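Hi R.,

Here's the chain you asked about this morning:
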Amino acid sequence: MSTFRTESRHTLDISGISLPVHRYHTLVIGSGTASLKAADRLHQYGIRDIAVVTEGICRGTSYNTGSDKQTYFRLSTGSPEEDSPYLMAEDLFSGGSMHGDHALIESVGSTEAFHYLASIGVPFPKNRYGAYVGYKTDHDSRDRGSSIGPYTSKKMVEVLFDQVRTRGISIFDRCEVVALLKHSRGIAGALAVDTARLEEADYGLTVFMADAVIFGPGGPGGLYRDSVYPAGHSGAVGLALALGAEASNLQESQFGLASIQFRWNVSGSYQQVIPRYISTDNDGNDRREFLNPFFPDTRTLCRAIFLKGYQWPFDVKKITSYGSSLIDILVYRERSYLGRRVFLDYRNNPSPIGGQEEFSLDMLPGEARSYLEKSGATAATPLERLLAMNPESVELYRSHNIDLETQPLEIAVSAQHNNGGLSVDLWWESVSVPRLFPVGEAAGTHGVSRPGGSALNAGQVGAARAAEKISGCYGNYELTWEEFEPAARKEALACMDLIRKSLREECRDDEEGIDLTQYRKAFAARMSDSCGAMRKAETVEKAAEQAFEQFSRFDRLSIPSRSLIPKLLQSRHLVFSHWVYISALAAYLGYGGGSRGSSLVLHEQGRLIHPMLEQEWCYTLEKTELQKYILTSRYADGACVHELVRRRKIPEEEFWFESVWRDFKEKKHLNE
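And the predicted structure, written out as tokens:
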């Protein structure tokens, strides 16, 4: 392995302005759990010339998101119930539209990933025998969930960051990547904006040259108006899509109920203590318990609310027979169709339906009553039950100036996770851009439905796989300045030209530019209204046309000061990716795709959700044959190209140890 840098140049001269160039072997983009794990593991494997580039160490989704009991999903090793990597892979694979080899890899790698986190300081609970116990999460047939409370992923970031810092890995903080660089043989690095240098002649533009890139910018949080992604987190998958990187299942996202003043999932105990659901007009008046008319009795309503705790994501399979996901539909209808605000009220129990007896724990179904009794949560009000079961969940909101004891909690059906992302091979390398390794939510390895907490595991396993491939196959310095310089120059020139025009530093023919804030609000609203949990084919088709038209007008944006340069360049890839996402959904519907996973496809001639709902709340059923396929998307020659590809099955090979040992020593396994 080469251990020296092959180039000594440190600037890129453009129109008399010198941009700084930083040369590293591997560039890690993002500072979430997956990116930090990749950097840590790369260093362990001998790649020491690494840089982490992030818009903010503490600004990503991993550090700022969670729920009442944020789950990490892994192979069960502390339960008397039988489990195996193949059983776990079956649960992952059964969600539909997921490659079976990815499911097996995530299962096999889960034990090592989980125990490594525990070894470096994530305090996953274990019993007196040393076994890490677990619980069932959604779409889970075994007790594979573990948690340290609301902040599981935050703690993961902290301990992994400690590893990265201890190893002396370079970190470029407050440095936002605005373009990826590519040459004829693959990825070449990235162009970023150093937010501390916006007032300089180069607008803070900073160039990174690298032989491999770990790409972990998170999910598409900046694309949605109704979002539980942390405020300020935007995502940047569009940077790779613009290079022509193939994506998988972009149309498959996960939605669920979340608070909106402070963005947080209201899952688990937030529902299991059975709060009262109310709606008001925009001024907070005219309070109604809007769920009550849609349920036959109080017991059925309370059961649905309770189940919403561990059936948190909206799921079309849980609508009928007064299922828990009927609540999501009614919340969405109340807000989007009737224009009202929706709240959870922890001060009061649900009111009795139709003059029935007052709420009591005795009226609850056995499953709910037993759970609350075992948890010691049998007090009179939802708040008291929540304090008994999970006091940290109450303190969490109090720390954000929301007191559940004195005020209701405003909620909405919100985008939470994209199950799609960039297409990767068995080593999490992009299938279309060599040496680009999407990790975390940027990697599209999930299918239609996935067990709760499996995303954290997939991020850790995928990051380790990427590090192993880079260290085993791409360890030398091979990228030359002659390959790198044209790509860097082209992107830097384009960014500088865009910045100058947007700041009005160059003359323009058009009289007035487009306001950046309104521009962003427009595509975020379009995404929530057309690509949210509730979808209509005609709305999506129209939205795709509008998305392309808005993307085409990007060069007319205007900003009043240099402080908005990062948001300007960020908006360039966001508006582009929102068009690709909507186009992918339009393609899926064009193939006859119906309601599945966490999205409902509405059609007036479809199945009626509830007899009391309007006709437009009928929905189409899933075309189950499509579960055997993955929808791929790619940008090429100014258009989005979509294709259905058959998913690969779970491997059933029998491995002979001596052969595996030989291939492993010769690193042949890295090229399979």
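The CA atoms of residues 298 and 353 lie 5 Å apart.

Let me know if you need anything else.
M.
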